[in-house]
Amino acid sequence: MKFRFLSALALLTVNTSFAQDSVMFRKISDEIMLHGTCYENLRVLCKNVGNRISGSPAAAKAVQWGEKCMKEAGADHVWLQAADVPYWYRGKESLMIKMGNGAYKKMTALSLGNTEGTGGKPLEAQVVLVHSYEEFNALPDDAVKGKIIFFDYRFRQDFVFTFQGYGDGVKYRWASPSIAAKRGAVGVIIRSMSTGADDFPHTGGMHYNDSFKKIPEMALGNYSADSLEHYLAKGTVTAKMQSDCHMNEEKRHSYNVIGEITGTKYPDSIITVGGHLDSWDVGEGANDDGAGCVQSIEVLRAIKAIGLKPKYTIRAVLFMNEENGLKGGEAYADSAKAKHEHHALAIETDAGGFSPRGIGLEMSEVQKEKVRVFKNLFLAYGVYDFSIEEGGADIGPIHKKLNTPLAGLIPDSQRYFDVHHTNNDVFENVNHRELKLGAAVLTQFIYLASEHELF
Ligand SMILES: [Zn+2]
């Protein structure tokens, strides 16, 4: 009897809290859907700043933009945090192919980020096709030496969550030049890491093993990769690569942009919400990750606008250099450690401005369960998946150095790898309602974490 009474009381407490939280969830959502400024902020970032690779003048302009937006959102404090970043330069580039002794035909291609070019001179060699590293390893040395290797690995379309497909295939972009150079190849072409039924080539980070020659790497869109495959089935194909790409020796000064609202009960405990301010040097960096930046700023604006008084300090961070160095994320974690800050939670939004579907959790099982108690509150906002173990790249260092629990906004993933790192990642490909819904869910999650002292 006594037990039954207690559990009924407990149930009543949970229900009362559920009702209150549900009202607050609605209030947050209404504020952002009706008065949110994130979409307009994104327009200004995309159209007035444009793409903004780390170390570029556009990245410096983006820092000023971020600082202004944080102030307009009503943050109590806004500041810049220094981070020295690499500066990779693309310059002019071209890729031509010919069959046998035929005429050269120009292909739509993009060099991969961080790659060295051909020093502006043409690099001509026979193309050798492989579909995988297994096929590459099976080739005799004389089939590799002096050749341009075409790693024709298709993005697996059978994974429903496309980030799994990306995780599966991205090694071909990241590591192939050194793997091929080790055996004497002179260049690499890859099929883009792309879900798209189109011909947009995708750039993205690659990495050299310093023990081998730094050979150039270029990506083809899916349709061009299909035609190259087709030509190779018919006979000998020669490619001519030409590019000015290079990594500058000197690092450049840059910054993370930070804005915060001071907590009322635990001002020294911080919840970080962030995205990355840098982008690749094509398109407008709209989904990757302008969307995450404006959503993080929107969290602060909405908290102020509805007069929420969070118990924890809420900090929005626009990280610099996620794409090719992670120097902003490292600087943030180093500073937190040096200042002995307590970071209760960090959440990242870097998967596109699409409809939110879940929240990734990278934390202990006990912490995950504390979050999942509130799962049903999110259903009305289309968010149901709390099963994915995911935080974000920029907040990885703070997890490593301070053991901070991480979370990540998980939007619908079907269209992200159509536009990711391409000339098609532009403002027009972000939907204003989906972007705002994502910001609302982030704010709701942060409200819960702070209000119920989950971390
Ligand atoms: Zn990104």
Tell me what portion of residues adopts beta-strand conformation: 15-25%
Distance between the termini: 34 Å
Number of domains: 2
Please name the fourth-level CATH homologous superfamily of the largest domain: Zn peptidases
The description of the largest β-sheet is: 8 strands, mixed
Mean pLDDT comes to 96
Structural class: alpha/beta
Number of helices: 13
> How is the quaternary structure best described?
single chain
> Can you tell me the CATH class of the largest domain?
Alpha Beta
Q: If classified by CATH, what would the architecture of the largest domain be?
A: 3-Layer(aba) Sandwich
Low-confidence runs: none
Query: How many β-strands, per DSSP?
Result: 17
Distinct ligand kinds: zinc ion
Helix content: 25-40%
Specify the overall morphology: elongated
CATH topology of the largest domain: Aminopeptidase
- Using only C-alpha atoms, the radius of gyration works out to 24 Å
- H/E topology pattern: HHHEEEEEEHEHHEEHEEEEHEHEEHHEHH
Strand order of the largest sheet: 4-3-10-6-7-8-9-5
Sum this structure up briefly.
This protein is 38% helix and 23% strand.
Question: What characteristics describe this protein?
Answer:
23% strand, elongated, binds zinc ion, single chain, alpha/beta, 8-stranded mixed beta sheet, 13 helices, 455 residues, Aminopeptidase, 17 strands
